[in-house]
């Protein structure tokens, strides 16, 4: 049952043979994280990319004033890491932390590079996932710079409707770039 979620994710964009599936599965590590536990620390290195099987994970950075800024949430069936660190194998700028007890499949950079040469369509999959993530981040930048807090919350609610109750309100506020107090007042005014 556990790999089924992975295959559903991969097969949205590529077709895999049974051999390729077994090869991929043999290269993955399963890891469990407790709520609050870090998958990646800013200043460390993101050696793996994580596929969330159960639970939820967030990526964020802390500014010079000690304020956290949520960049990404990931739920079952989503990939998450400090992408820059993972791709460049350099220093991580984000913390990646479990929001709930979570189980992830880890795929190391070295193994992924090896799999690209054996299963070329896997490179296509990660190209598509990376492109879509980039588009999503561009949309967030536009929303942040051009929309009101209410409009940003509407967009968030539409995207994360089925997950929203699993995310603490102060983290949603951080993701939206508003204070928890403003978010609370704004949420009360919404009509859903």
From TrEMBL:
For whether the record's keyword set contains Metal-binding, the answer is: no
What keywords are assigned to this protein?
Kinase, Transferase
Per UniProt, residues of the Cyclic nucleotide-binding domain are: 16-115
A GO MF term: kinase activity
Output the superkingdom of the source species. Answer: Bacteria
Q: What Gene3D superfamilies has UniProt attached to this entry?
A: Jelly Rolls (2.60.120.10)
Q: Does the keyword Transferase apply?
A: yes
Annotated signal peptide: none
- What protein am I looking at? cAMP-binding domain of CRP or a regulatory subunit of cAMP-dependent protein kinases
Species the sequence originates in: Algoriphagus faecimaris
